[in-house]
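Appendix C: a fully annotated inverse folding record. The material below is reproduced so that readers can follow the format used throughout the book. The structure is listed first as tokens, followed by the designed sequence.
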């Protein structure tokens, strides 16, 4: 499936229907009074969050959205039909911006959340409404008011609990494919992953968290090198990063340098990124030369205060422990901060 995370669309609410000009015509009633009905209201435009969607792809093919217009008023004081409202389905994590002003209008995160975006126009009043004691045959009616319209930019920021970051080839996609049902492409060349993937990870029996795999970063990514940093926004809302470090086929000092490069790119994209806790994950422990270098590198990261895990996604070594630790950390990060134990009650 194609992944689209930014689109521009035009939406319009329905116009109100026109009020009717009509007089009662009936056998044996010489001069029937005014009986023109009101126009119907135009339909509204809503957004609704649908968890079955995970991309903005549909908006590539359809750009204009319009709710139904109100029907015109009719004789015998019949009200015109109200226009049909339009509900536009979006994936969780959709941000709605006004294209002209750049203002953020909504952040749609909760499944089934619904938002009234535009109001339909009001129906105009028919001439029956304008009858007074002095003007019993009014010929006045109102047109309906036009429905609102707007050009919007929709941007998707995926919602995940933990994000995988690291150089290309570090083993990010291999890890997510081991711990979840996600099946991203895996290969021994850089930039195998071209779009983000989400995977639901089960742990501790019935608990779950969502992991996001994004394309690898390289030096200068924030200036557009490699695939750039535009996919980083999909891990902006995670609580935690797993920073994958590959020790295979590296020169002396290279893994530590790479680690610093990635963090610099994260910071350039958004300084808040460095505030998130990072777990350092040394990958590919089944390779002998990797295993040999691991203790020294591990000591280095521990000294800097990072929790370190050594895993092999190939053999499964260390993977369960890692998943359990991620679950634990997420639970700690989310625990209410002001948890002072209540004073014991004493008579
Ligand atoms: N021996 C060994 N190889 C691994 C392990 N994990 C990943 N690899 C290999 O490393 C290569 C890169 O793995 P990917 O999972 O595609 O790496 P990635 O970080 O997703 O790479 P990009 O998507 O390009 O950023 C592949 O050839 C994998 O088979 C591991 O635990 N052991
Ligand atoms: Mg990948």
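Designed amino acids, in order:
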């Amino acid at each position: 499936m194609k992944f689209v995370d930014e689109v521009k669309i035009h939406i319009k609410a329905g116009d109100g229907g026109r009020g009717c000009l009509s007089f009662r015509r009936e056998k044996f009633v010489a001069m029937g009074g005014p009986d023109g009905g009101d126009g119907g209201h135009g339909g509204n435009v809503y957004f609704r969050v649908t968890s079955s969607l995970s991309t903005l792809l549909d908006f590539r093919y359809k750009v204009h959205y319009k709710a139904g217009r109100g029907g015109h008023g009719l004789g015998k004081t019949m009200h015109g039909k109200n226009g049909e409202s339009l509900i536009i389905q979006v994936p969780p994590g959709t941000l709605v911006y006004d294209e002209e002003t750049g203002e953020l209008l909504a952040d749609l995160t909760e499944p089934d959340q619904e938002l009234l975006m535009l109001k339909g126009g009001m129906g105009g009043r028919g001439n029956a409404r304008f009858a007074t004691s002095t003007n019993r045959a009014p010929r006045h009616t109102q047109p309906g008011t036009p429905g609102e319209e707007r050009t919007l930019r929709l941007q998707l920021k995926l919602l995940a609990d933990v994000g995988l970051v690291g150089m290309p080839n570090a083993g990010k996609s291999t890890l997510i494919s081991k711990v979840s049902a996600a099946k991203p492409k895996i290969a021994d060349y850089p930039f195998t992953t071209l779009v983000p993937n989400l995977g639901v990870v089960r742990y501790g029996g019935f608990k779950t968290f969502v992991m996001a795999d994004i394309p690898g970063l390289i030096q200068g990514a924030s200036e557009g090198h490699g695939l750039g940093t535009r996919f980083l926004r999909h891990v902006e809302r995670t609580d935690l990063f797993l920073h994958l470090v590959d020790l295979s086929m590296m020169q002396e000092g290279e893994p530590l340098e790479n680690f610093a490069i990635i963090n610099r790119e994260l910071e350039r994209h958004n300084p808040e990124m460095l505030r998130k806790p990072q777990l350092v994950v040394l990958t590919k422990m089944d390779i002998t030369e990797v295993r040999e270098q691991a203790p020294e590198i591990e000591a280095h990261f521990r000294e800097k205060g990072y929790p370190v895990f050594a895993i092999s996604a190939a053999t499964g070594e260390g993977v369960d422990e890692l998943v359990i630790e991620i679950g634990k950390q997420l639970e700690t990060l989310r625990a209410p901060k002001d948890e002072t134990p209540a004073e014991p009650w004493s008579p």
